[in-house]
Structure formats: C-alpha cells, structure tokens
Design goal:
InterPro entries: CheY-like_superfamily, Sig_transdc_resp-reg_receiver. The structure is a single chain. The longest helix is centred in the C-terminal third of the chain and has 15 residues, at 118-132. Strands 2-1-3-4-5 form a five-stranded parallel sheet, sandwiched between helices. The chain has a single domain (11-61, 69-87, 109-132), classed as 3-Layer(aba) Sandwich (Rossmann fold). It is α/β, with parallel strands linked by helices. The chain is globular, with a radius of gyration of 14 Å. It has helices spanning 19-31, 42-52, 68-76, 97-106, 118-132; strands spanning 11-15, 35-39, 56-59, 88-92, 110-113. It starts with 10 loop residues before the first strand and ends with a helix. Helix 4 (97-106) links the parallel strand 4 (88-92) and strand 5.
Length: 134
C-alpha cells in the first residue's frame, strides 16, 4: 500500500515572478500530491482566484508592479466566495522581523524565508491548510 501524499487533493495558487522559483515550488508541491496553478504576477493571480478557489495561496512579496503586500490586501477585501479568506503564505527573501510583521499585518497567515527546503515547504503548506480547515 502506497503512503498518502501530504498534499493530496489540495489546489494551490502560486504567485511568483521568478521562473526558476515558480518551477521549484510547483515541482515540489505536485510531487506531494497537490494541484498547482502558478502565475507570474498579482494581476494574473486575481484573474484566476475566483474560479480556482484554491485551498492555499503562496505568494512572493518582492514582485515588480504590484508587490505581495498590496496583492494580499486586495484579496482580503474580497468576499469569501471570491477567495477573500484563502489561507496565504508569504514566501519571500525579505526575512527580518519587520518584514514578517508587515506580511502578517497585510493579511498573510505565515511568513517563510527563501530559500526553503522541499520538506519544509510541504510541511508549512500542510500545516497551514490543516490549521485553517478544522
């Protein structure tokens, strides 16, 4: 009998402007059973969010144009049926305590510093989903 994949059945939206990091996140999470939609910008994410209704959102902070802080504030202003309450992870190179506080105040549930190991990423996503969906 094959062990269950920790993220089996989860739909995850990844918002990351760096192609290599977006590929890394997608590869790691798909290997653990998640279905991923990965987009390179906040505007692209807002287009797919209402239809996708992801179980978890992973978003970079330092994106050109619209940063992750602005993006998550706009998401939190949406109604729940439009994705406004999606559990959200800030995955960012901005990693001091002020950045963490700013991310949480903007509306992210957790702040994770890059680089992140594959195992840590899977654990963070699984734990966030479990804590927000009991």
């Amino acid at each position: 009998m094959q062990p269950l994949l920790p993220l089996a059945g989860l739909n995850i939206l990844v918002v990351e402007d760096d192609d290599d990091i977006r590929f890394f996140i997608t590869t790691v999470l798909e290997a653990d059973g998640a279905t991923i939609v990965a987009v390179p910008s906040a505007p692209a994410a807002r287009e797919v969010l209402p239809q996708l209704q992801p179980d978890v959102l992973i978003c970079d902070i330092g994106m050109p144009g619209e940063d992750g802080y602005t993006f998550i504030r706009k998401i939190r202003a949406l109604k729940p049926d439009m994705g406004g309450q999606v559990p959200a992870i800030a995955l960012t190179a901005y990693n001091d305590s002020e950045d963490r506080i700013r991310a949480l105040e903007a509306g992210f549930h957790t702040h994770v510093s890059k680089p992140v190991s594959p195992g840590e990423l899977v654990e963070i996503v699984a734990n966030l989903f479990a804590s927000c969906n009991w």
